[in-house]
Amino acid sequence: MAELVDLADKIKRYFQFSFAETRGLILATAVFAFILSFREWGTTSFDAIAGMFNYFNAFLIVGLSILVHTSAQRVWALVTGYKHEFQLWGIGLAFALIATFVTRGIAWWFVIPGGFMVHMMAGHRLGWFRYDINYWALGLIAFAGPLGNIVLAALFKSLGGFFASALIKKAVIFNVAYAICSVLPIPPLDGSKMFFGSRMFYAFGLSGIVAAGILLLSDLPVWLSVISAFLIAVILWLLYYVYLEEGKDWWPYG
């Protein structure tokens, strides 16, 4: 109970976004909403009204997805005594836009809005085994983002069972794409922090996120998709350990 009260106090004092973060989040949302609605500005000819309507819907989906991703990391960072700061990745936005124009919006969405950095809150790290900033903690914070998107995709798919909607389906696909792109081991994406935090943890996290994303796009029920993804992640984690890591020093605490 005391831990929950402490976390609530941290959220109240430290969760708010700075002006630079807010500007970056809005810009990322605007860009990826355009990418998401790229092929929906008219069927046979350009239709500004239909395009703006679809862009608005895409803006809501992207905004919610990025907010969930960032908030999940932000809250877990506060749990472990760090302050999370979102950082926009201009190169990632440019690459996503170029890929969209080149492929005319047909290819997989490259949802790579940015990364993050953390600031240690000295007083809140007292008593932790690793007092300062360490790769293991960064890896766990990073993993919270794509995991949040998978949870959101699962919730949207569950709603789709009651309200059949192209918008809900698009929200599921976007969150899956966001989660999978995020775990790529490319700086400054979350996957790079997970990889350097622990190779074994990365093997489990990458397998679980990719498996869950693919299964959520299938016709399997949500509960079966989640359970199957976890089992696949465990199996691939064990195979990775047996064939690549056995006998090596992979545990981050040494």
Q: What does it look like?
A:
The protein is mostly helical and 254 residues long. The protein has one domain (2-193). It is 67% helix and 6% strand. It has a two-stranded antiparallel sheet. The relative contact order is 0.10. The mean pLDDT is 90.
Low-confidence stretches: none
Main sheet record: 2 strands, antiparallel
Assign a percent range to the helix content.
55-70%
Strand content of the residues, in percent? 5-15%
Mean pLDDT: 90
Order of helices and strands: HHHEHEHHHHH
Structure characteristics:
single chain, globular, two-stranded antiparallel sheet, 67% helix
Topology (SSEs and partners):
Blueprint lengths: L1 H13 L4 H18 L11 H32 L2 E7 L1 H14 L10 E7 L14 H26 L5 H17 L7 H8 L1 H18 L5 H24 L9
Antiparallel strand pairs: 1-2
Concise overview:
The chain is mostly helical and 254 residues long.
